[in-house]
UniProtKB/TrEMBL annotation:
<keyword id="KW-0269">Exonuclease</keyword>
<feature type="domain" description="Exonuclease">
    <location>
        <begin position="35"/>
        <end position="208"/>
    </location>
</feature>
<keyword id="KW-0378">Hydrolase</keyword>
<dbReference type="GO" id="GO:0003887">
    <property type="term" value="F:DNA-directed DNA polymerase activity"/>
</dbReference>
<dbReference type="GO" id="GO:0005829">
    <property type="term" value="C:cytosol"/>
</dbReference>
<dbReference type="GO" id="GO:0045004">
    <property type="term" value="P:DNA replication proofreading"/>
</dbReference>
<dbReference type="InterPro" id="IPR006054">
    <property type="entry name" value="DnaQ"/>
</dbReference>
<dbReference type="GO" id="GO:0008408">
    <property type="term" value="F:3'-5' exonuclease activity"/>
</dbReference>
<protein>
    <submittedName>
        <fullName>Exonuclease, DNA polymerase III, epsilon subunit family</fullName>
    </submittedName>
</protein>
<comment type="subunit">
    <text>DNA polymerase III contains a core (composed of alpha, epsilon and theta chains) that associates with a tau subunit. This core dimerizes to form the POLIII' complex. PolIII' associates with the gamma complex (composed of gamma, delta, delta', psi and chi chains) and with the beta chain to form the complete DNA polymerase III complex.</text>
</comment>
<dbReference type="InterPro" id="IPR012337">
    <property type="entry name" value="RNaseH-like_sf"/>
</dbReference>
<dbReference type="InterPro" id="IPR013520">
    <property type="entry name" value="Ribonucl_H"/>
</dbReference>
<dbReference type="GO" id="GO:0003677">
    <property type="term" value="F:DNA binding"/>
</dbReference>
<dbReference type="Pfam" id="PF00929">
    <property type="entry name" value="RNase_T"/>
</dbReference>
<comment type="function">
    <text>DNA polymerase III is a complex, multichain enzyme responsible for most of the replicative synthesis in bacteria. The epsilon subunit contain the editing function and is a proofreading 3'-5' exonuclease.</text>
</comment>
<dbReference type="InterPro" id="IPR036397">
    <property type="entry name" value="RNaseH_sf"/>
</dbReference>
<keyword id="KW-0540">Nuclease</keyword>
Length: 221
């Protein structure tokens, strides 16, 4: 007789349990009552399995205000190095000196984001990179709800009859169209700040004369 045994994950670490516990709280109904974490990652490339995160940058947004003094930025120790991507993010090997392991970075990131709604530009990539880091740590995927500024911004253009609804806007295009400075572009913290400003401006366009509800943002495709 052949017996199949269910594979059990090792007991979850305390930091993951603390993170999971925060999701017992229900998110507020209105957009302006919620806390959003706007994030960006710089990576060695675009392959989820082979490439690694070099830096995570994030800012908090609450009550339509970006909490600049409460920003998050962490550099990871480079176990892999791709000289081609240095041309984009400018992070050379072993620079800066103060780096964290992948496990340390993920732990600090989870503590920072809590159960807040995550926002990123082309969010699938950044969230995917974090989820693959979690997988390597034998942990589940992120539990947070996620919004993509590309999708939200495209909805403002569709409503104005200005666009092909299948167009994929780059962050540079958003910044240009929304009159946002591209200073510090292609750094995780800089791109997170640009995305945060784009998110605020996009929300104001979507809800010009009304108080928007969070659930409606997730209906935008």
């Amino acid at each position: 007789m052949i017996r199949f045994f269910k594979k059990h994950r090792p007991e979850d670490p305390d930091f993951w349990k603390a993170y999971e516990a925060k999701f017992s709280e229900k998110l507020p109904e209105f957009i302006d009552e919620n806390e959003f974490i706007i994030l960006d990652t710089e990576t060695t490339g675009f392959d989820y399995d082979k490439d690694r995160i070099l830096c995570i940058g994030a800012v908090k947004l609450k009550s339509n205000t970006i909490e600049v003094a409460n920003a998050f930025e962490i550099y990871l120790h480079q176990e892999q190095f791709n000289p081609e991507t240095v041309k984009i993010h400018g992070i050379v090997k072993n620079d800066p000196e103060n780096t964290a392991t992948e496990a340390e970075a993920i732990q600090q990131f989870l503590d920072y984001i809590g159960n807040a709604v995550l926002v990123a530009h082309h969010a699938n990539f950044d969230i995917g990179m974090v989820n693959h880091a979690l997988k390597r740590l034998q942990l589940p995927k992120l539990k947070n709800k996620v919004l993509d500024t590309m999708t939200l911004y495209r909805a403002t253009r569709i409503n104005s009859n200005l666009i092909d609804r299948n167009k994929h806007y780059s962050l540079d295009e958003l910044a240009e169209n929304l009159n946002i400075s591209l200073k510090d572009r292609h750094t995780a913290s800089g791109d997170a700040m640009i995305t945060a400003i784009a998110f605020l401006k996009t929300i104001s366009r979507l809800y010009k004369n009304e108080r928007g509800k969070l659930k409606d943002l997730f209906k935008i495709k």
